[in-house]
Amino acid sequence: MTEELTGDPITFDLIGAIEGTTYPETEVRFYFDARAAQQIHGMNKRLTLLGALGRTEEYEELEPQFFQAIEDLKDKEYIVTVRGVPREVKKAWVAKAQTKHPDKKPNKDGYQEPNIAGMAYVQLLQWQSHIVSIANPEGKVNTGPFEESVIESLLNRAPEASLAAVAEAIEELDTGTKSGYEEAVRNRDFLSEPSPEESLDSSPAPSE
User: Fold this and answer.
1) Which residue has the higher pLDDT, 12 or 38?
2) Total domains, the chain
3) Which of 131, 135, 152 has the alpha carbon at shortest distance from 89?
4) Which domain holds residue 181?
5) Are 65 and 44 a contacting pair, CB within 8 Å?
6) Does any domain span residue 154?
């Protein structure tokens, strides 16, 4: 099978090309301090209200506190690095989840109860595969893959807003790559077409 894929020396190494596939990475700012984030949100709402009411003195008094709260949050900022994964890994999530939490058989009316535990376990395995590392505010780094118990604790206890940011980044690893591929193909096709000026220049001159 390997010989069929690699071919003879005048072709190319398909196995090598496949194994050389790269996957995108991105970093996500992650905060465990939900209270501080909520306070910033509250101050922002208050500033918006004061601005709308024209209460300049109160606005100018609160604004420095707002920016200081944002600055203080940097000391509580963790960096989660996520990376794309191949399709074989995604298939393994489903297979492992089905083994641990198999779907229930449909009842006599054909209704199949949703496999909530299975879906939650797939998400856990997804995050375990995607998260490459987590850095704390001092720059110390824990690298993955992390134990399932660690990911489960993260998903169950971390602030929803921070979890949503990581989930969005994971989704973007696939959707962004797809959009970039489509954009590259579209522009390559466009650049391959002759411009109107080139078409005119290459047209034969009319006979007299």
Assistant:
1) 38
2) 1
3) 131
4) 20-30+76-102+116-193
5) no
6) yes
